[in-house]
Design brief:
This protein has 177 residues and is mainly α. The protein is 75% helix and 0% strand. It has 7 helices and no strands. The model has no long low-confidence stretch (mean pLDDT 93).
Length: 177
């Protein structure tokens, strides 16, 4: 008896989700001195995948949940992964709405995906207040604003690097599947 199309698609979704989650974890751990030392997670560039398929939001959230154990522990696992889930969905939604509105009024001379990259990068970078609050909660000596501002810039850099990798990759591989 052949498996139903539904089970094949479901199995494929689970496998693809696991691959992206594993990629997030491996990139973070292999580059641990950057990831946990100065907080530059190159793996955060994978956040841009959220623009291609909602499944990637869940994959990255799972990756963040598991790898954050090595950062600030259980609190970071919970706050970091919930923040990732919420702000990737929000960033994707805002990016879609903004590009739709621009496209209704103007002929776009650049790839709309680049505009979406910029929007989700800014939204997600500004969301670093959640992680800055975790740092402040766990380290009373930490100051919120310097921590937050540095995290915003580091996130902008991480996602910028990701954009320079993922955008050309998306021209060769269908990331929507």
């Amino acid at each position: 008896m052949k498996p139903s199309n539904y089970s094949k698609n479901t199995s494929q979704e689970v496998v693809l989700t696991a691959i992206v989650a594993a990629l997030y974890i491996v990139l973070t751990l292999v580059l641990a001195p950057l990831s946990f030392g100065i907080g530059l997670r190159i793996s955060e560039g994978l956040n841009l995948l959220a623009l291609y398929n909602k499944r990637h939001i869940w994959a990255i959230t799972i990756g963040v949940f598991l790898v954050n154990y090595f950062a600030y522990g259980v609190l970071d696992m919970i706050v970091g992964s919930l923040s990732t889930l919420i702000f990737l969905y929000l960033g994707r939604w805002i990016a879609d709405k903004v590009v739709d509105q621009i496209a209704k009024r103007h002929t776009l001379s650049i790839d709309p995906m680049i505009i979406k990259y910029i929007i989700i990068t800014v939204v997600f970078s500004l969301s670093m207040f959640t992680i800055a609050l975790v740092v402040l909660f766990l380290d009373a000596a930490a100051a919120f604003w310097p921590t937050y501002v540095s995290m915003v810039f580091i996130e902008l850099l991480s996602m910028g690097i990701g954009g320079f990798i993922i955008y050309p990759l998306s021209k060769r591989i269908d990331l929507t599947k």
